[in-house]
Amino acid sequence: MKLLAVLVLLGAAAVDAQSWWPWWSWFSTPAIDDSTPGATWDGLRVTFGINPFEKNFDRLPRTKEMAEHEGWTLFGPNRCTGLRSACSSGYQIHNGICYKAFNTTKNFYDASSTCVADGGTLAMPKDTDTNAFLINLKNAVDNSSSFRFGLTDLNQEGDWIWEDNVTLSSFRPWGPGEPNNVRDEDCAEFFSGSHSSDANAWNDGSCTNNDTKFICQATPSAGTWRGFRYVKDNDPAVTLLFDKNGFIAGLQMGVRKSELPSDGSIPPQQVTPPWIEDKDMWLLTAYFIQPSDICSDGRTEAEYQDEGTGTDLYIQTGPNPTSDIMTIPLQQSDLEGTEWTEGKCFWGIGKHYWWNLRVDMDCKEFYPVFIMYNGGKLDAFGWNIGTYLDSPRYEHPAASFGMFMDPVPTCLADHSGSLSTMHVYLTNGYPPFFNHC
Ligand SMILES: *[C@@H]1O[C@H](CO)[C@@H](O)[C@H](O)[C@H]1NC(C)=O
Ligand SMILES: *[C@@H]1O[C@H](CO)[C@@H](O)[C@H](O)[C@H]1NC(C)=O
Ligand SMILES: *[C@@H]1O[C@H](CO)[C@@H](O)[C@H](O)[C@H]1NC(C)=O
Ligand SMILES: *[C@@H]1O[C@H](CO)[C@@H](O)[C@H](O)[C@H]1NC(C)=O
Fold first, then answer.
1. What CATH number labels 92-218?
2. Is the Cβ atom of 104 under 6 angstroms away from ligand 1?
3. I want to staple 147 with a disulfide (CB 3.0 to 4.6 A). Which of 138, 223, 285, 309 is the partner?
4. What's the gap in Å between 305 CA and the centre of ligand 3?
5. C-alpha dihedral over 396, 428, 332, 407, to 10 degrees?
């Protein structure tokens, strides 16, 4: 242990000096703890930049208390489980659909775009029950404004079509004499709750006037996860997951849909899952303890002290965090016969394994998760996304794929600089210097 401490000090000194001095070359075999990998997971670090020797890597907090102290903030709901029925902030659920009455005025087109940006559409009160719910919702926000919803006859006068292209059925609570199309009115709205004669009835209104409020609807989150989520600087690229007692339980990578190519090519259909859709984001999730324990029991202080960052590495591969789980082998020797393809060992970073790597593969099939072994033991993993993402958390490998992969898929020739990767180490000791192959 003393030797280890000296090495850590030396490592720290080398890093502080920003030097490339290869001090570790003095030692042919760095000291490696021989106990189970989980027992050596004494940290949590994320690299910045493709070369961890040159760039910083961030030591992440492993308790909620420490995270809050370091400026991390709760991301999303203050609860341990991301529920299937979760609505975005400000939305209320009714019969499995989320609704929000916006207290701002917009024309039909801008209102519609606002709803799309929230991952939904203008609301569609297709039945009495939903209609009554929306009337209460809008009147609680503003009883004296009219509110748009998603019904128009823009294509063909008198031919009323919902936002989902379904034709208006017999449920049509228009106010008396409506729709009347005076001054070319093609967009449906609720009369205000305080309207003298037609309170809360439907009216055909102008699509272009900017004085009408509006109601959006969205489907609840399809993804669920376990743990309280924390982010720093509102950047979901690194989202920490804490168990019910505030100890580290996992890490999530979130990317906002607006950051992804608009053609929907990411995430590719070939590899969803492990991507999970969460309203306006796509998520990749890793856990360091059994996911079913995170919100039920959590870990005790003693368990956390004893086990460190965690006991195992699990990748969530579907919407159910307790059943849709891939357990990553702790020992490199256990990867034989699996679809994990041995990559190159990069001294200081570790031995990479990629999922089902082939020369002639389509880059869309590139599995977004890779794993890393150091001295034969799992000590790191990472994300690999086939597009350029802006967060400073990501690395953008350029043309050096041969240093990490064997074979290098031909399709990667076109991807220089346009991939985004992130390395996550479960150890604190200064690898990169301790990582060997
Ligand atoms: C909505 O806006 C109006 C002003 O247009 C304001 O009087 C009212 O309090 C607002 N409602 C809510 C719920 O904030
Ligand atoms: C409705 O139809 C239009 C054109 O006919 C199409 O562009 C749009 O994607 C459709 N919307 C939905 C929700 O199906
Ligand atoms: C809305 O205004 C009408 C007419 O003034 C009133 O009867 C009704 O109770 C009000 N509703 C709400 C929710 O304030
Ligand atoms: C409504 O707002 C838009 C900008 O969103 C503007 O171009 C348009 O002229 C406005 N229309 C009216 C009638 O004021």
1. 3.10.100.10
2. no
3. 138
4. 59
5. 10
Q: How far apart are CA 183 and CA 121, in angstroms?
A: 26
Distances 238 to 105, 107, 274, 356, 424 between C-alpha atoms, Å: 36, 37, 17, 26, 10
Q: Residue 232: pLDDT above 90?
A: yes
**Identity at 418, one-letter amino acid code:** S
Mean pLDDT of the chain: 84
Asked if the bond preceding 179 is cis, omega within 30° of 0, the reply is yes
278 touches 81 (CB < 8 A): no
> To test the ligand 2 pocket, which listed residue (165, 217, 219) has its Cβ within 8 A of the most ligand atoms?
165
Reading the block at residue 333, the tokens are: 């020797």
- CB under 8 Å to 323, separation ≥6 — which residues? none
CATH 3.10.100.10 residue ranges for the chain: 92-218
Characterize the bridge pairing of strands 235-242 and 228-232.
Answer: antiparallel
Residue showing tokens 């200081």? 348
- The answer to whether the beta carbons of residues 359 and 407 sit under 8 Å apart is yes
Run of H or E including 226: none
